[in-house]
Amino acid sequence: xxxxxxxxxxxxxxxxxxxxxxxxxxxxxxxxxxxxxxxxxxxxxxxxxxxxxxxxxxxxxxxxxxxxx
Length: 69
What we know:
There is one protein chain. This protein is mainly α and 69 residues long. It has 2 helices and no strands. It has helices at 3-29, 56-64. The longest helix is centred in the first third of the chain and has 27 residues, at 3-29.
């Protein structure tokens, strides 16, 4: 392989690695959206609304995210 061909190959591999890294970083910054719809759920049927019913997972999700009420 001549020097010119080797330089082009190295440049292409470097560019490929940079593009893949940039894509991975962009994927990490996208928001995660979880939309939960529950039928026949009363207002105080979840812990984060003051219920006696224990819903720790939903409480944690509500504490970390946005609640559309």
